[in-house]
Amino acid sequence: MDDKSNPVKNRYDRIAPVYDKFEYIMERLAFNKWRKYLWELIAESGQAGDKLLEVGVGTGKNIPYYPEKMNIIAIDFSPEMLIRARKKADRNERKVKLKEEDVQELTFPDDSFDFIVTSCVFCSVPDPVLGFKELNRVIKSDGELYLLEHVRSKKFLLGPLMDLTNFIPKYIWGANINRHTLKNIRQAGLEIKSVENLWLDIFKLIIAQKGQ
C-alpha cells in the first residue's frame, strides 16, 4: 500500500465504530434513495454471473442492495470498516467476497470486471487519478463503472466555501469536499458516458467506461 494512504486508512479505522451513526441523517434524507436508484440501474443492466467490484465498501451500506445474480467482490483499505461490512453481509444474507485492498494498487488482473461501483470513495483516495487508472485497467472493454460521488461545486460562492472548509473533513476522516472528480476521471483515461446531478451540482451519478 502507498505510504500516502496510511494516514487516511488510520483515520477510517478510527472512525469505523461510529461511522454509521455519523452519517445517519444523510442516509435517511438522501443516500438510501440514491443507493436504491444506483443498484436498480445496475440490476437492469447486468446479467447472471457478471463480475462486479465495489470499491470502498466501507461499513457495507450498499450490501443490502446487491443484486443476488452477480458475483461480487467488495474491497476497502480499512480493516475496521471491513469487519462491519461482513456483519452487514451476514445479516442481509448476501454472498460477497470482502478483501482489504487499496484502489491505487489493485491486485486483480486486467479486464476482470463487468461492473465497478463506488459511492463517495474518491473524496478520500490520496491519488484519485492513480485510483481511476487502476479502475480503467481492471474493467472489461464492454464493462461499466457507476460512480456515486460528490465533487466541488462550480457555483460562485459555494465552490470557494468548499475550498475554505475542506480542511475540516479532511482532518477528521480523510475526505475532501472539493475534488474535481470529473476532471480526474478523464485524466485517468476513462470515458464518461453520462452525468446526472442528484443534489445541486455536488452529488452526481457518473457512468463511465474503459478508455481507449
- The share of residues in helices is 25-40%
Spatial separation of the terminal alpha carbons: 27 Å
Q: Briefly note the structural class of the backbone.
A: alpha/beta
Number of DSSP-assigned strands: 7
In terms of DSSP E residues, the strand content is 15-25%
Name of the top-level CATH class: Alpha Beta
The overall average pLDDT, rounded, is 94
Provide the number of structural domains: 1
What is the CATH topology descriptor? Rossmann fold
**Within the largest sheet, what's the order of strands?**
3-2-1-4-5-7-6
Radius of gyration, rounded?
Answer: 16 Å
- Main beta sheet strand tally, sense and closure: 7 strands, mixed
C-alpha geometry: globular
Quickly give the CATH architecture.
3-Layer(aba) Sandwich
| SSE order | HHHEEHEEHEHHHEE
| Tally of helical segments | 8
Oligomer: single chain
Q: Which residue ranges are poorly predicted, with pLDDT under 50 across at least 5 consecutive positions?
A: none
Instruction: Find the CATH superfamily.
Output: Vaccinia Virus protein VP39
